[in-house]
């Protein structure tokens, strides 16, 4: 039921109906609180609804109503600090009016005009705020260095940060980069880099033409690389550049086969080719992977073949499967096949491989399929895994489940309950496995290990009304970003970025919802508090102020209309899309950025 109420959230009608008055604010926060308490009810649905309303409610300034998004910090609606607008001067223009009724609209506009990066969380390594010596940054704050910049990628560790600029250069900062001067600095330049993966002490960067570079995190190692790294490395040293790097040579690439993607854990990396093959490699200089995360049974430090120890090896068990995505946690790996099957390998001590309890095996050294069909048995739904994510000791899966008539022919009550019109209906679900003691499973529980995937209910079974097709559509996830103990998700659908000078003055822009959950001891969730959170929640607006919640902004450049002209000097080779999302929170910090999405061959 609540799902269908959610369906109304994106419609202009809903927006207009929700003019700032007290009543809806109260009602909604109560409703939300009760659905949280009910546990089994669609708490997420209600949350989503509230989230959707945020845009409309901003004028009322009732933003505090949002904080109850966790079970731990259930805010009493009565305590919600409802502030009313002081009598403001009459808005002079349509844009002023929009800014006034919606801080979402304002935020979308700001993100177009002043792109940049917001970071928060642990600052012990001068990562979240290189210019400050505070040990933690409690709420989103801009990293000044990136003001005005659109980035291609960014990854944060507790002691170092790495980003790729619009031009494809690598920028590094943090104390592990340089204790003396942790400020951001360009290091590897001119390689047209598009994507980053970080390990304990090395950065892997993927160039647009498919070259994979391995760069030491430490600036002094970069300077004296040839000396510090023993002879086995030297034969691969490339000609000197500002930062010493190695090219990772992928053996036996086929004709027309390139590198599509990279992912990394603390000690290992996965490399995906455009033909769906997967290679794994050691990626840290301090420890050789020993928990099966390479996916090659029998491959250890002592049995490894001659040559550079970080040479990639093809995972032969996956040969013949068309792998489209790879993901890596600290010590485990996931690979997603086009047909929707997922393979897991590596460390399983927290249950991060998702197997139901059969026997205790601390790790699995070759890929094994995770049977989601078993998990959906008896639901009259056929599951297909659509994306994977991993970080720390956790794994995440998004699944599309399609309603079908009972295949078994047995007495399956759910079929009897499903009217014919529901056949073919698609539900988008999100599942988590692994360590849950910090709340990173997002399932409302604090558990040490999982004995199989657990559904993140607030991110599952959501629907909304699609104005264009005039139908109810599932709300999917656009992206997941997984840190060591915390995670963030950007919801996929229904954003509004089309407000123009000719459309109604109530036609406002808004972005996609961003939710955060998990470990928070370094303030990495951005809530301003330190308590861990075990269910997805919104955080306050960027830059403080009168706003409601976290939204990502997604827009094609042609859709930008505002007082100040947005930047036009976008890299013409990039699809001119700007996104804001939390990405690359490898350790205890988070970032939200406005960035460029590149069209790579693999996406076509
Ligand atoms: C890829 O680009 C880099 C510089 O951008 C160049 O050094 C390298 O040779 C190129 N590799 C291939 C295979 O084209
Ligand atoms: C993975 O770990 C969980 C929790 O320890 C355990 O129940 C399960 O049997 C393990 N699975 C495998 C395949 O070893
Ligand atoms: C993850 O698992 C490893 C061992 O497999 C353990 O050393 C580490 O503390 C765990 N990390 C978290 C965040 O649970
Ligand atoms: C990612 C996603 O779910 N996108 C959907 C959003 O809604 C449109 C229709 O308006 C669909 O076509 C997209 O597939």
TrEMBL record:
InterPro entries: MitoProcess-Associated, RCC1/BLIP-II, Reg_chr_condens. Pfam families: RCC1, RCC1_2. The chain crosses the membrane at residues 49-69. Residues 82-99 have a biased composition (Basic and acidic residues). The keyword Transmembrane helix applies. RCC repeats lie at residues 276-339, 340-401. PROSITE patterns: RCC1_2, RCC1_3. It comes from the Eukaryota. The keyword Iron does not apply. Keywords: Membrane, Transmembrane, Transmembrane helix. Residues 80-106 are annotated as: Disordered. This is Mitochondrial protein Fmp25. It comes from Apiospora hydei.
């Amino acid at each position: 039921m609540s799902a269908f109420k959610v369906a109304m959230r994106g419609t202009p009608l809903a927006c207009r109906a929700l003019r700032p008055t007290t009543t809806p604010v109260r009602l909604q926060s109560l409703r939300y609180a009760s659905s949280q308490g009910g546990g089994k009810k669609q708490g997420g649905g209600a949350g989503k609804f509230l989230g959707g309303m945020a845009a409309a409610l901003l004028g009322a300034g009732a933003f505090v109503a949002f904080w109850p998004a966790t079970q731990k910090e259930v805010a009493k609606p009565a305590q919600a600090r409802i502030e009313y607008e002081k009598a403001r001067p009459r808005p002079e223009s349509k844009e002023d009016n929009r800014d006034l009724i919606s801080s979402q609209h304002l935020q979308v506009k700001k993100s177009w005009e002043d792109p940049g990066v917001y970071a928060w969380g642990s600052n012990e390594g001068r990562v979240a705020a290189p210019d400050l010596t505070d040990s933690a940054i409690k709420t989103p704050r801009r990293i000044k260095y990136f003001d005005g910049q659109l980035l291609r990628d960014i990854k944060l560790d507790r002691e170092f940060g790495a980003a790729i600029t619009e031009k494809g250069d690598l920028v590094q900062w943090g104390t592990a980069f340089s204790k003396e001067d942790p400020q951001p600095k360009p290091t590897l330049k001119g390689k047209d880099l598009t994507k980053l993966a970080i390990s304990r002490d090395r950065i892997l960067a993927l160039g647009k033409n498919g070259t994979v570079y391995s760069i030491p995190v430490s600036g002094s190692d970069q300077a004296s690389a040839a000396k510090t790294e023993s002879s086995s490395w030297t034969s691969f040293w490339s000609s000197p550049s500002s930062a010493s790097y190695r090219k990772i040579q992928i053996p036996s690439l086929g004709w027309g086969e390139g590198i599509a993607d990279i992912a990394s854990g603390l000690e290992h990396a996965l490399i995906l080719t455009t033909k769906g093959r997967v290679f794994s490699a050691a990626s840290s200089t301090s420890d050789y992977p020993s928990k099966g995360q390479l996916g090659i049974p029998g491959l250890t430090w002592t049995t490894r073949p001659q040559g550079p120890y970080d040479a990639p090896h093809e995972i032969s068990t996956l040969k013949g499967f068309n792998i489209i995505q790879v993901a890596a946690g600290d010590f485990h790996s996931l690979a997603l096949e086009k047909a929707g099957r997922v393979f897991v390998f590596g460390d399983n001590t927290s249950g991060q491989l998702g197997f139901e309890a059969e026997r205790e095996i601390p790790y699995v050294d070759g890929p094994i399929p995770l049977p989601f069909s078993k998990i959906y048995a008896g639901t009259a739904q056929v599951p297909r895994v659509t994306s994977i994510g991993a970080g720390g000791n956790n794994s995440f899966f998004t699944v599309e489940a399609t309603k079908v008539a009972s295949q078994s022919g047995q007495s399956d009550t759910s079929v009897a309950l499903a009217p014919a019109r529901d056949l073919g209906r698609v539900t988008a679900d999100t599942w988590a496995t692994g360590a849950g003691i910090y709340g990173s499973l997002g399932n409302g529980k604090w558990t040490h290990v999982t004995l199989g995937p657990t559904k993140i209910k607030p991110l599952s079974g959501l629907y909304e009304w699609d104005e264009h097709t005039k139908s109810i559509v599932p709300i999917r996830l656009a992206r997941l970003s997984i840190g060591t103990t915390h995670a963030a998700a950007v919801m996929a659908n229904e954003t509004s970025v089309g407000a123009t000078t000719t459309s109604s003055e109530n036609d406002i822009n808004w972005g996609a919802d961003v939710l955060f959950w998990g470990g928070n001891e370094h303030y990495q969730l951005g809530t301003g508090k330190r308590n861990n959170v075990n269910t997805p929640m919104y955080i306050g607006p960027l830059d403080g102020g009168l706003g409601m919640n976290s939204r990502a902004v997604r827009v094609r450049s042609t859709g930008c209309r505002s007082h100040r002209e947005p930047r036009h000097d976008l890299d013409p080779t990039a699809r001119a899309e700007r996104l804001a999302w939390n990405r690359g929170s490898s350790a205890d910090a988070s970032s939200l950025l406005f960035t460029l999405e590149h069209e790579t061959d693999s996406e076509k």
